[in-house]
Amino acid sequence: MSEVHELTAAAGAADPRTGLRAAAALRKLAEHLERLQVRNARERGWSWQAIADELGVSRQAVHQKHARSLRD
Amino acid sequence: MFKRFGRDAGQSVAVAVSLARELRHPVVRPEHLLVGVFRVDGVAAKVLSGFGIQDSDLVGAATGGPARQAGLADDEVAALRTVGIDADDMVRRAHEAIGPPPAVNRRPRFDGGTVRVLELSLRELSRLGHRRLGTEHILLAVLAAQPRLALLDERGVSHAEAERRVLVARRRAG
After folding, report:
1. B22 closest CA partner among B69, B84, B75, B90
2. I need a labelling partner for A2 at 20 to 30 A (CA). Which of A57, A62, B64, B162 fits?
3. Given an 8 Å threshold on Cβ–Cβ distance, is B82 in contact with A22?
4. What pLDDT sits at residue A11?
5. pLDDT tens digits, one per residue of A15-61
6. Alpha carbon of A36 to those of A24, A52, B127: distances in Å?
7. Residue (of B74, B99, B75, B20) closest to A35 by Cα position
């Protein structure tokens, strides 16, 4: 990255608007990745409990969040 | 809101939603709307063609990068870049390794920009003194909204010039 780009990037990261937007976007990315991998795990025969263990949440939580969208 | 929408305008919204689904975008953006107004045979399509814009240009703008399939907007991708994350690259790798993005089960929702464009189209309608909302009012609303779409800027499609051509096209249509 050129020096100008680095400075621009640094300034952007310090700005709350950009930083907060980045945080919100990271959450969206994490959600997308989770959705992909939950489906991946289910296709490989993982139980909801096993998936929940990896995600560090309860079985009910992961089932409630993902079961409906995986039904079809 | 859709009460004043003529059949063509309503159809272009439906096309936009359908395109978002097809692209596996959970969110409908003004770029999808633009494809919608282009694909419905109306005044907007004529005006856009007159600027040399083709379906592939508009679909390209609507498709964007892989991060869009994770529901990210361009400004969010840019924001992540400032903290050293390439969202498009991350999503692309995930899709390559894990499989295609899931189909959008729920109806794709309109983002704030799209809602604003649809509201602005009603304003364009009344500003021009027209009665029935057509695809041309949606097009003018897209041009009036901020931020402006890069593709339209690149092709020199200004609101003023588009409006001029819309009025000419409407007169010709009779």
Report:
1. B69
2. B64
3. yes
4. 58
5. 899 999 999 999 999 999 999 999 999 999 999 999 999 999 999 99
6. 19, 14, 46
7. B99
Per-residue model confidence (pLDDT) at position A14: 78
Mean pLDDT of chain B: 92
In order, the DSSP letters of B20-49 are HHHTT-SEE-HHHHHHHHHHSSSHHHHHHH
- For A13, the closest chain B residue by CA position comes to B82
Q: Look at B70 and A28 and tell me if their CB atoms are within 8 Å.
A: yes
CA atoms within 13 A on the CB side of B33: 30
Assigned token pair, A69: 């969208």
Given the cut 0.95, state whether the ipTM is greater than it. no
Q: Which of A12, A25, A36 sits opposite B94 (nearest CB)?
A: A36
Q: Which residues touch B94 (CB under 8 Å, ≥6 apart)? A: A32, A33, A36
What gap in Å lies between CA A16 and CA A38, rounded to an integer?
32
Q: First-to-last CA distance in chain A?
A: 44
Tell me which residue in B78, B80, B98 faces A40 most closely, judged by beta carbons.
B98
Which residue intervals of B51-111 are DSSP H helices? 55-63, 74-81, 87-98
* DSSP state, residue B52: T
Query: What span, in angstroms and rounded, lies between the C-alpha atoms of B150 and B148?
Result: 6
How far is it, in rounded angstroms, from Cα A35 to Cα B108? 16
Sequence-ordered list of residues with C-beta below 8 angstroms from that of B169, at least 6 positions apart, any chain: B43, B46, B47, B136
CB distance A55 to A31 below 8 Å: no
